[in-house]
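Anyone up for a design puzzle?
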């Protein structure tokens, strides 16, 4: 099945392709000459995911899906949440974001956090959303070199390795994106059997 994944993040593309498997052939907007930045200024992950998918669907009429992910720390009232990508400021990178998170949690005993991923699908002019959650804790320092974003500081519940120390297969099996995208995959497979 050919489907457009609205992202410019090649880490996400790789994870999504591995999660969805050979039955899905993913294309991203830049491969079709769409290179403009799609705004992500919604108040919730759901709004951002639906907006991104809707933006590209309006432009070219194609069925597509988009994801938006946030890291929610309990002691910070769910921050950085929807602001995870620009937590340390508009020009910041993942390293800056992680350092800001570690600073905000300095001295905090409650280090519980979760990744929440929302996938929005636009299929035959209808919108569907799928959610994946991964619970864990934020370590006091970065550990591991794999993955991307906040992976080096996130220890999933029941694990002794951070997401950045797991293999891609191990991460995909438990991750927020893995859970949400397997829901998407089941939905698409059922839909196409009808
Ligand atoms: P977005 O979904 O691209 O807006 O991602 C929001 C922020 O969360 C960015 O800083 C990403 O690097 C980070 N992020 C998204 N997915 C993951 C993940 O699977 N692991 C770690 N960080 C992630």
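Challenge accepted. My sequence:
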């Amino acid at each position: 099945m050919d489907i457009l994944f609205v992202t410019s993040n090649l880490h996400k593309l790789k994870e999504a392709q591995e999660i969805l498997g050979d039955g899905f052939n993913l294309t991203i907007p830049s491969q079709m000459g769409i290179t403009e930045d799609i705004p992500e200024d919604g108040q919730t992950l759901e709004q951002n995911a639906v907006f991104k998918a809707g933006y590209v669907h309006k432009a070219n009429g194609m069925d597509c899906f988009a994801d938006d992910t946030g890291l929610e720390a309990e002691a910070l009232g769910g921050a950085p949440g929807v602001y995870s990508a620009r937590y340390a400021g508009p020009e910041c990178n993942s390293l800056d974001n992680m350092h800001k998170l570690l600073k905000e949690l300095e001295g905090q005993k409650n280090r519980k956090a979760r990744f929440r991923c929302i996938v929005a699908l636009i299929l035959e002019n209808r919108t569907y959303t799928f959610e994946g959650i991964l619970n864990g804790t934020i370590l006091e320092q970065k550990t591991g070199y794999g993955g991307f974003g906040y992976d080096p500081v996130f220890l999933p519940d029941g694990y002794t390795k951070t997401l950045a120390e797991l293999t891609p297969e191990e991460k995909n099996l438990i991750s927020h994106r893995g859970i949400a995208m397997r829901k998407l995959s089941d939905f698409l497979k059922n839909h196409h059997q009808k």
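A detail worth pointing out: The chain has one domain: 2-193.
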